[in-house]
């Protein structure tokens, strides 16, 4: 499993689990955030770079 796939699949699994709870509760919100540095990189920010 590549790093990029693992990150995306993790977001999917969490959203899938949350939706079940939202349906029980009658409402809910999912907010996914990301840094632009995940795509373009930045000097000194190697920890944010994902290479699949």
UniProtKB/TrEMBL annotation:
List the InterPro entries hit by this protein, alphabetically.
NAD(P)-bd_dom_sf, SDR_fam
Q: Which Gene3D superfamilies match?
A: NAD(P)-binding Rossmann-like Domain
Which named protein is this? D-beta-hydroxybutyrate dehydrogenase
- What is the originating organism of this protein? Halalkalibacter wakoensis JCM 9140
């Amino acid at each position: 499993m590549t790093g990029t796939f693992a990150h995306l699949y993790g977001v999917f699994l969490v959203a899938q689990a949350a939706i079940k709870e939202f349906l029980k509760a009658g409402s809910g919100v999912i907010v996914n955030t990301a840094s632009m540095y995940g795509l373009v990189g930045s000097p000194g920010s190697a920890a944010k770079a994902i290479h699949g």
